[in-house]
Amino acid sequence: MEQVRKIAHDCDALVIGGGIVGLSTAYAITRAAPGTRVTVLEKEPGPARHQTGRNSGVIHSGIYYRPGSLKARYAVRGAAEMVKFCAEYGIAHAVTGKLIVATEREELPRLHALVQRGRENGIPVRELGASQIEEYEPEVRGLAAIHVGTTGVCDYTGVARRLADASGAEIRYGAQVVRVDRRPDLGVAVRTAGGDVVRGRVLVNCAGLHCDEVARLTGDEPDVRIVPFRGEYYELARPELVRGLVYPVPDPAFPFLGVHLTRGIDGGVHIGPNAVPALAREGYGWGVVRPRELAGTLSWPGSWRIARRHWRYGAGELRRSVSKAAFTEAVRRLLPCVEESDLVAAPAGVRAQAVLRDGTLVDDFLIREGARAVHVLNAPSPAATASLPIGREVARRALGALATAG
């Protein structure tokens, strides 16, 4: 005990990662326990530079997710809270509603299953026949659709900035973590690439694309690997063709939602994403290759099992990645009037997808604890939508670890 008193901690909770989940966690900690000292380390020069700032900005309703799962509960709750948060702080947002459209007969049973799932998750859903689709989207064609009124869009980067300001945490940008020294009886010391050492009583790992690496640096084996999937987007040159949000019926075997149309808060319409393997954790184009990271992905048995199990699906995604004509063909299923010339390349994103050793894609949020550590190991979409409830849950665990640490 004498030794513990001699340690000078820079903070109580040391959060790694300045995306929306890390900043929401910092905000939740200081809200739940005022006076708790929180430091956030973010390797980029500002917040929300990866998953948070490179998605389509959708506030998801929660209709897709298994009833009772964290994704379902946190997305439904988080969507309402996100709209309220944006309204309270003057952050750009809109509740637009969205259509999920079946364009093939074999999709109709899956569409009806989504209606049932939506109702189980407490989400109001309206079923539409082919002729009723035009009420919402005059240029969209399909056999049937459902309208989900609670879906919206917002500026998630603006939300992240506001969370950072309102948390009262010390935010250190340009602070890449290269080493973690955890002593269960003393605390956690983190060294950054710049040579700084930051000491905390508890570590909170919200490192997104690098969360499994941070867990291993801490000394905890996460039993999953992040396999990065790049989502490629286009911008619609004729945004007047789309009024709101239009989605295909997703394949239940995958956590990806398919190529969809999203009218953002800026009035532009994003189209995408497809999902292809990235050759680096931050591989936003085919030209970005990091051999060490790629080797780490290829050495994980789950990566090969995904490839063997889903190669047909993957081949279609790769085709759309390398062929604009093929991408346009996928869009035309929903929007027949679109031309290849209407698609203008837009910035890509990378999804941090946790994969188990047996090749199973982790389909729910995954939070695990170690000695003086809490690790967020799977928080892809809809994590931005659900970020406020996720932050509270991670904060609850972090504060519990602080209480235990004494």
Please give a structural write-up.
It is a single chain. 50% of the residues are buried. The protein has helices at 2-6, 20-32, 70-89, 108-120, 133-136, 156-167, 211-218, 291-298, 301-309, 311-322, 324-332, 387-405, and strands spanning 11-16, 38-42, 58-59, 93-94, 98-102, 125-129, 144-148, 152-154, 170-173, 177-183, 187-192, 197-205, 224-236, 245-248, 260-263, 269-272, 276-277, 343-356, 366-370, 373-378. It has 406 residues and is of the alpha+beta class. It is built from 12 helices and 20 strands. Helix 2 runs parallel beside helix 6 (156-167), helix 3 (70-89) crosses helix 12 and helix 10 (311-322) packs across helix 11. The strands form 3 sheets. Strands 5, 6, 7, 13, 14, 15, 16, 17 and 18 form a 9-stranded mixed sheet that branches. Strands 1, 2, 9, 10, 11, 12, 19 and 20 form an 8-stranded mixed sheet that branches. Mean pLDDT is 94; it is low at 1-5.
Secondary-structure blueprint:
Layout: H1 2-6, E1 11-16, H2 20-32, E2 38-42, E3 58-59, H3 70-89, E4 93-94, E5 98-102, H4 108-120, E6 125-129, H5 133-136, E7 144-148, E8 152-154, H6 156-167, E9 170-173, E10 177-183, E11 187-192, E12 197-205, H7 211-218, E13 224-236, E14 245-248, E15 260-263, E16 269-272, E17 276-277, H8 291-298, H9 301-309, H10 311-322, H11 324-332, E18 343-356, E19 366-370, E20 373-378, H12 387-405
Helix pairs in contact: 2-6, 2-12, 3-12, 10-11
